[in-house]
Amino acid sequence: MKTELMLFWIAVSLYGLSTFSYIFGLITLKDKLFTIGLFSALAGFLPHVAVIALRWSATGISPFISISESLTLGVLMIVLFFLVFQFSTKKLQPLGVLVMPVAFVLMGWAATLIKEVAATLAPALQSGWIWAHIVGATAGFASVLIAAGLGLLYLLKEKKSGGVYDKLPSLSDIDNLSYRFIAAGFILYGLMIVTGCFWANQVKGTYWNWDPVEVWSLVSWLIYGIYLHLRVTFGWRGGKLAWYAICAMFAMIISYWGIPFSVETFHSGFRIEH
Amino acid sequence: MKNIITVLSSARLAMALLVIILACCLSGVTLWRGAEAGRMVFATLWFNGLLVLLVINVACCFFGRIWGRTVTVISFGMILFHLSFVTMFLGVVYNSLFYFRGSLRLTEGETLVSGDPQSYDTCEQGKFFSFARLKGETTLIKMHVGYKVAGDDKRVAYEVAVGEHNNKKQGLIYVTHKLSHQGFDYFNDKEGYSLLLVLADHQGKELYGAHVPLQSIPVGTTGRYRYVTGHRERDTVVADFGPFPAPPEKPLFALQTAFEPSPLGERSGTVTFMAHPLDGAGNPEETSTLTRGKIAIGQPFSLGNSVVIPREMRYWVGMVVRYEPGKAIVLGSLWIGLAGMIITTIGRIVRKTNQDAAQLAGL
Ligand code: HEM
Predict the structure, then answer these.
(1) pLDDT in the model for residue B156
(2) In ligand 1, which atom is closest to the CA atom of A225?
(3) B346 C-beta closer than 6 A to ligand 1
(4) What is the DSSP letter of A168?
(5) Residue A160 or B256, more confident
(6) Atom of ligand 1 nearest to the CA of B60
(7) CB-CB neighbors (< 8 A) of B152 in chain A
């Protein structure tokens, strides 16, 4: 437990450093700070992976049961997507300005909620569907968060010029890239819902019960379905959709970790009546 | 008429419906919770009407607009996606006409006739469901506690047999594993203790015996339970007195029993009992108590001119029986929808990449 906690806080601190560098990078317009931000995110990612691996290997219980574990895994996916994207395109240096603060805050929140690993896995969770379900949920969130980050860059570039801003791709390219991440998020949320339905069907014989977690996942999906329609059928582009992507991202945080976990739902396991 | 079709096939209506449904969903998880959200939103006629309207809108608007266009990768994906909505809806409608859902309660060793509505605690079915589909009987052979599969603790498993003589199926049900037979699925739901109470005279001659299902009541926040004769009021169990012997026999007493399991052995423990005489109307006369006490399972106690023996403890289980012929259509549509989304997105990315390349080449 000791090492685990230490690694956890190292990861949180490095994400904090990354956040700080990105924000100051944007204020002072110094590229170097973005580079520091990126590499401290990478440095934080390593202990982050180690924390999850340690927890998992200690008991063999899949590491996404409690709210803290769910947050930790979600942030892992965010940072993973972010790093892969940043190292594959070098042109969007300040992207971390939105992504890393969110990762930092969620990870810090997870640290305060950390609990011992559960001794046993509730029978309802012993299903293969849960894997695809969790991957869909966390990767979906990572995608729409990056889309929101791109939205922020769009809005900034629209207003300002010089230095960092001139190095960014054109507005229409940023807009298009943001849209692709939204489309990916929409698909991944679709995967989350479909596998969730199959999982519920395996356990209870019903695929949809309007339980809060189900409804929240539908909410996420509808929010991005509306985005796609605004774009494809109503021809919206640019600034308006950038704002939409940013607001929707906050809605996602609430819909994931804010409310559903505070009420007893299907996901918190089963009550055995004897 | 033309106006109605124009409205039904407008993209504005689609957007309005999506936003309204989103708002309903949000209020159903914030303003109201749990069962209340169902009563206020999700189970209401107007909300389901909105969903139906959305499907009609998808059909008119999307297929109206897309009709006659050349099919590309992008539009093919979109067709699949929007079509999945329509087939999903057809699956739901078909299911609602033919489905059956029942909850069946059985004590170990007990058998009930599957096709008799009386066998079910509660059941509901579609207009065109026929009980003749439910053939034969359902038997609970045994309930296994602490059941494990490949090291995973499943807590409990029900060993059951369903069907007719020449077409019977026997198997285990546990969470994540159902039993299927002739289109019917059997799921585990809940379980409890069932006490075998035997009534005998003082010479030891047995007059009557019955399994009395006990309900669980949590003891404070200790995580332990008391198991009592009682009934359910909404979500809580209320301990009460039951007629003993139970009708159709002539009841002689009002009896309440509670079981406390022993940590030393499965199915062993102590029984606490209390009995009142019955008044003329068959209700317990709570002012006079015939007997009360506590004994181990298997020990007799006197009650009036007779003896009662809580002979043994068995388990009862509540199973959910489902017949949902439309479900495969609904679940299949989900994959089609997902595939549609993926195909459209890939199509768009490929098109954009090609456009960019063409632009570059043109420069
Ligand atoms: C929950 C409901 C719905 C969702 C989630 C949804 C989702 C989508 C998606 C993902 C696309 C493709 C966007 C892209 O290419 O990236 C699309 C396109 C489209 N949808 Fe829907 N849709 C829904 C309902 C409807 C309804 C009710 C209508 C009818 C009014 C409709 C009409 C269209 C049309 C016309 C297109 C564009 C086709 C074109 O390229 O012209 N959709 N929708």
Answers:
(1) 87
(2) 5
(3) no
(4) S
(5) B256
(6) 29
(7) 121, 123, 126
Answer yes or no: is pLDDT of A267 > 50.
Answer: no
What pTM, to 2 d.p., does this model score?
Answer: 0.85
> Is the CB of B15 less than 8 angstroms away from the CB of A230?
yes
Residues of B in contact with A260 (CB under 8 A): 29
Chain B residues closer than 8 Å to A124 by CB: 175-176
ipTM of the complex: 0.84
pLDDT, one tens digit per residue, over A225-264 is: 999 999 988 889 988 999 999 999 988 888 777 654 554 4
Q: Is the CB of A183 under 6 A from ligand 1?
A: yes
- Indicate the burial class of B305 (C-beta count within 10 angstroms; 0-12, 13-18, 19 or more): exposed
Quick check: helix, strand or coil at residue A169? Answer: coil
Tokens of B103: 């909850």
CB contact under 8 A, A126 and B152: yes
Q: Picking from A7-16, B262-271, B286-295, which range would have the lowest pLDDT averaged per residue?
A: B262-271
Find out whether A20 and A11 touch, Cβ atoms under 8 Å: no
Give the pLDDT confidence of A112-154 residue by residue, as tens digits. 887 766 666 677 777 788 888 888 999 999 999 999 999 999 9
Q: Is B161 exposed, middle or buried (0-12, 13-18, 19+ CB in 10 A)?
A: middle
| Residue in A176, A191, A201 nearest the CB of B331 | A201
Exposure string over A19-38, b if 16+ CB within 10 A, otherwise e: bbbbbebbeeeeeebbebbb
Cα B320 to chain centroid distance, Å, stands at 5
Q: What is the mean pLDDT of residues A85-92?
A: 89
Ligand 1 centroid to residue A260 C-alpha, Å: 28
Residue A163's pLDDT is what?
A: 76
Q: Considering only CA atoms, which of A177, A24, A183, A202 is closest in space to residue A125?
A: A202
Q: Where are the domains of chain B?
A: 2-97+328-362, 100-191+318-323, 195-315
Domain boundaries, chain A: 1-116, 126-267
A225 close to ligand 1 (CB < 6 Angstrom)? yes
